[in-house]
Amino acid sequence: MEWLYILMPIAGVKIFWPGLIILGIGVGIIGGFFGMGGAWMVTPGLNILGFPMAFAIGTDIAHMAGKSLISTMRHGKFGNVDYKLGIIMLVGTVVGFECGAQMVMWLERLGSVEKVVRWIYIGLLAFIAWMVFHDVAKRAQKERAAAARGEKLDVTATGVEWHKTLHKIKIPPMVHLEVAGIYCSAWLPIFVSFLTGWLAGILGIGGGLIRMPALIYMIGCPTHVAVGTDLFEVAISGLYGAATYTFKGRTELVAAMVMLVGAAMGAQVGAVATKYIKGYGIRIAFGLAVIGCALSILMKLVQPWVPEYKALLDTSSTVLVLGLVSAMSIYIFVRMIAGVKEELRQKQQKI
Description:
The protein is globular and about 60 Å long. The chain has helices at 17-34, 39-49, 53-77, 83-110, 113-148, 162-166, 187-203, 208-219, 223-247, 253-273, 280-301, 310-350; strands at 5-8, 13-16, 174-177, 182-185. A hairpin with a 4-residue loop joins strand 1 (5-8) and strand 2. Strands 1-2 form a two-stranded antiparallel sheet. The chain is mainly α.
C-alpha cells in the first residue's frame, strides 16, 4: 500500500495522503459553519498522521488562511461580518500571535513542544466544552422558567452572560459596532484578541476555536455574526501566521495545497449552512466537536504510560479525528439540504 503515502520534502516524513484530503474537505465544511479555520482539528490531525508538531502547526496555518478567506467572502454576502470589530481585533491578534509563535520556537529548542502543546490543547478544549454546555443548560433553565410563567423566552436571550458585566467597563475610547449591535470599550476586543492570538500562536490555530466563543460570551456577538466576523479575523491573522511559520521553515506547502483544494469546496457548504442552522444549534454541534477532538489528543498523551497499546491508540485516535470530521460534515450538509428544500417549498406556496 506504498502508493497511499506521499513524501513531504520539507518535513522529511511520509504521510497517508487520503487522510489529508478527508481533513481538507471535512474541515472546510466545519470551518465555514463554525466560523473558524478548523485548525483545532487539523493540527492534532496532522500530528496524528505523522507530522512533527511544529510542522503540523505551520502547515495547518498555511492551508487555513486561504480557506478562511473564501468563507469570509461568502459570509459577507449574508451580512454576517462586522468588519469594524474584526479590524479592531487585528491589533491584539497580531501581537499575541507573534508572542505565541516565539514561545513555540523556545519550547522546540527545549524539546518540550509536543507534550506542552498537547496538554494546553486538552485544558483549553475541556474548558470550552464546559462553557458551551453550561451555556446551553442555563438557557434551557431560563426557557423552563419562562414557560412556567406562561411566557415565551426572547430568542436573543443567552445562558452565559459574561459580556453584560464586561460591557460595564467604560474605558475610552468607546466604539459602536453596528452589525453586532454592541456598544463597548475598544479595549475589550483588543484584550480578548491578544489572549486568543497568543494561544493561537502556541497551538497553531487561527484562533477561531477560542475567538468564536470569546466573541459570543465575552463581547456579546450574536452567534451568526460571531461566525462571520471570526472567519474574517482568521483569514487575516492566518496570512500573517503562515508567513511567520514559513519564514521559520516549519511549513509543508505540499500538504497545505492538497488540503486547500478540498477545503475551498467544503468552506462554501459550511458558510451556506449557517443560513439554515442558527443560534444554539451551532453551539451544541460545536461543543460535541470539541469533546471528540479532546479525546483524540488524550489518546496520544497516554501512550507513554501504556506502550503495549501504542498501535491501537494510534489507530483509534486517527479514526476518531477523521470520523469526527466526516460525521460533522455530513450532519451539516444534510441540515443544509433540508433547509434549502424547506425554503424552496415556502417559495412555491407563495407562488
